[in-house]
Amino acid sequence: MTTFWLLAAALIAAATACLLWPLLRRRTAPAPGTPERTLLVDLYHDQLHELDTDLRGGTLTAARHAEARDELGRRLLDEAAGAATGTGRAGTSPLLAALLLAVLPSAAILLYLHLGNPVALWRADDLPESTGSQHQLSGAQVEGMVNQLAQRLRESPGDAQGWAMLARSYSVMERHADAAAAYARAVELAPDVAALRSDYADVLASLNGGSLEGPPMAQVRQALVLDPDDPKALALAASAAAERGDKQAAIGYWEHLYRLLPADSQTAARIAANLAAARGTAAAAQTPKITGMVTLSEKAGRTPQPGDTLFVYALPADGSRMPLAVLRRQARDLPLSFTLDDAMAMRPDHRLSGQQLVMLEARISASGSALPKAGDLVGRTGPVAVGTEGTRIAIDGAIAP
Fold first, then answer.
1. What residues does each domain of the chain span?
2. Where are the alpha helices (DSSP H) in 190-338?
3. pLDDT per residue over 311-323, tens digit each?
């Protein structure tokens, strides 16, 4: 804060000096014998010669000629008087200079206090570190600036950034009800700003005893619709999911947030710890598997032979064709209840447990080939979350030639 005011004072002083210099400097008239004085006399003689020429030519009357000569004489005498005293005519304006010196700095400070954000200059390290009374005085000063900002917003209620600043100030002061009211106004004025909604949700949760259920979660969802990468909204959504026992959803939000953070940051370390704890709990709660049923639809176009090979696959949701789990049966087993898990993986490093979402596919092959061929009957569904039960796959088409 001190640095800001020092810079502001320097700028005000520079601006004042630029304005006062032309008003206070004295202009001297040309002294006798100088080139300026000689030029002035020559100009006088030239003008007098022109008057005489006009008189002889008849373009100027004798009376007008006499008046013009008198005027030239008076002007020459004025300049001569200025040279004798060493000063010219009105060159200084001390009254105007004094008025500017008194008004300009005060006007600049008052204008900033009215239009600026004085609260933004306050930081925790600006507080004195000595006696308790000094702490109380600084706290009173900060509260005064916050109240001043609130007064300005009552006079100009359409400033969304001002309401957001006021809300954050109230949050620092732990005036959560006032902060919620200010955030509500800011969100009303700027409904498309995701960060405002996530901050608003945080304050609403504080008023709700720390719980994010209800209105706080509604603000979090809207924030993620506006910006799926909003860090605070992701963190709040993960906390809400963990609060209601949905470990998989919490893991999804934390993984998303972790990818957005610098790997060496303290926040990333905390998110990694949350992920490790949630994954451990989720792994203990359920085995990574998918269950369901495969049926043959009339839309398949033909009836397979009972001995044709039936494959049921789980494939990565990113489009890769390397199966995560494979079950092999025969067409005579349809309708088939199935379970896919890590025991059916083709590679130990490519398993269901390493995925959140997968695609499911059932295929009937007359040749028994593991590679899809034209004419094979096929059905697909997904993406499906790992751990889903009761998934249905209908074989309802054929691979085109």
1. 192-285, 289-398
2. 194-207, 215-226, 231-243, 247-260, 266-285
3. 999 999 887 888 9
Q: How far is CA 224 from the centre of its chain?
A: 14
State the amino acid at position 20 in one-letter form: L
pLDDT tens digit sequence for 118-174: 555 554 444 444 444 444 445 677 778 888 888 888 888 888 888 888 888 888 888
Residue 297 identity (one-letter amino acid): S
Asked if residue 228 lies in contact with residue 199, where contact means CB atoms within 8 angstroms, the answer is no
- List the CATH code of the domain at 192-285: 1.25.40.10
Among all chains, which residue has been given the structure tokens 């003008």? 47
pTM exceeds 0.70, yes or no: no
**Cβ atoms of residues 355 and 342 within 8 Å:** no
Token couple for 280 = 């451990």
Across 85-115, b (16+ Cβ under 10 Å) vs e yields eeeeeeeeeeeebeebeeebbeebeeeeeee
